[in-house]
Amino acid sequence: MEFFSNVIKIMSKYWKTFLVTGVSYTLLLSVITVFFGAIIGIFLALARSSKIAPFRWISIAIVEVIRGTPMLLQMYVAVFLVPKLFASEIPTFLSVSIALVLNSAAYVSEVFRSGIQAVDRGQTEAARSLGLTSSQTFMKVILPQAIKNILPALGNEFIMIIKDTSLASTFFIGEVMTACIIVKGNTYLTFECMFIVAVIYFVMTFVLSKVFGKVERRLKAGD
Length: 223
Description:
Blueprint: H1 2-48, H2 53-67, H3 71-86, H4 92-118, H5 121-129, H6 134-164, H7 176-187, H8 190-221
């Protein structure tokens, strides 16, 4: 009972740190990562499927390097090495965001590539026979069907990103795990703080999984 009593005391005093600052930064990081990661991921997927060899090689190299190295290492590179290479000061939040975006883009590109390949080639031929250009065919025919096919995987990627933002606590940028470290340092109640963080992450990911599930069911009902 003392454990839960301490949890209540922590939340009564530090609820803004957890629920306002922590959750806000976590969701902001996640939205930035998913939005820009999806855009870059589409371009990487198209480059990997391109007939132009250099585009294909560059895309493959980027994806394989990012997928083959730990995200935390990529964050260290973005925070400490990149500013030195460009001889400029880059805000830590921006550096961490860039690392997350590129990591997400590498995985999303493979998801998009599989989704695009899953669309029947007859759809492309039919669209071209109606007079649509290659870009119009992709944007109006191929991409909408590909997104419908990969929506569950994209939803799962969003949920994974929310949990991966916890690695950003290494650089104290304000998300939920950073809030946990701050409160733990003030209260010396480690397990209680960890319990609160676990509940917050579970609630966010559970709600998102239900939202994506509902969207997926609606899309299937519209088929």
